[in-house]
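Q: Could you fold this chain for me?
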Amino acid sequence: MATSAVARETVFALRRQIAKIEGTLPERLQAPAAAPVDAPRNPTADVTPKKITPTNLTIVRRGLAVAPPDAFLRTGAEDLDTALGGGLPKAALSEIHGAATRDAGAVAGFALSLVSLILKQGPRPPVLWIGTAEIFREAGFPYATGLHRLFGIEPEQLLFSEAPRLLDALWTAEEAARMTALAAVILEIRGSPQRLDLTATRRLHARAQSAGGPVFLLRQAGEPEPTAAPVRLVLSAAPSAPRQTIAGPLAGSIGRSAFTVSIGKSRTALPGQFTLEWNPDERSFEERRAGERRQERAANPVPVVSASRRGKDPAPASGAVLAFAAVGSPAAGDQPSPGERAAHRRPRRAG
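A: Sure. Below is the predicted structure, expressed as structure tokens.
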């Protein structure tokens, strides 16, 4: 019968090893205690069944066998942090997607909020933002004054690297990810380039793990593809709530920046969607509940467009609206200025 006990121990060890490799959901694997009946009788041996204590339990978690409390970057939104198993992993590659190009501002604002959370923990080295010339030409650079006012980031704490090609940007990100002289590395890429494959993301993830710092991969209008990132968040802008005052919400005002965050991929969480507001004073996220927006609308029933008040002589109905005049030449006021006429007459540049 001793053979069966050894077999059970072997099967348990294999299950635990497979769970660590595959990254199963968090669970407790308990080693089976051999029954006294199966064990050979030995008068000198202690045949009392082993008492199961918390130290005998092995907690298996996706990708992390043992996760210290400071291994995650907490956003401050309890539901999102709980869904992610504690927050975003610090020493890892994390993807932040924008479904369309118009979401580039929301993606960048969310990334800057994460940087603000990192710098809030104490004196930190600068952050490196890497992108191609196409990225910065399409989405622009962050505004220095807004960095300090909204995120508490000094302009000298944010460094930019503009690469001529995607291959150069990937190389720069890999070299920067292994450096401990940077608080975080941000790599912004547009679309779904072929060079950004599973091998490239594995290298970025491995270097982030070895250096112990986060690498944020910002994707503009990219398709969800297999990557080595443990977490993928899909970002879009959310409507801002009215600004809060002592007398209550200020009707018609624009409040804090808001984001719609969807969990596209996670090794510890199921898909979910959250609406977060960035508090620039506390430098933390606050979750907006679904019922809070309805209550605000009920308490402040302000129409989007004020109702028309008909007088004695209402204006006639407008006709067809065209981008250009239908017939005739443009009006005198629509003519280009003398300084613009010379530019209009120049031939187009060839090539």
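A (continued): Residues 2-22 form the longest helix (21 residues).
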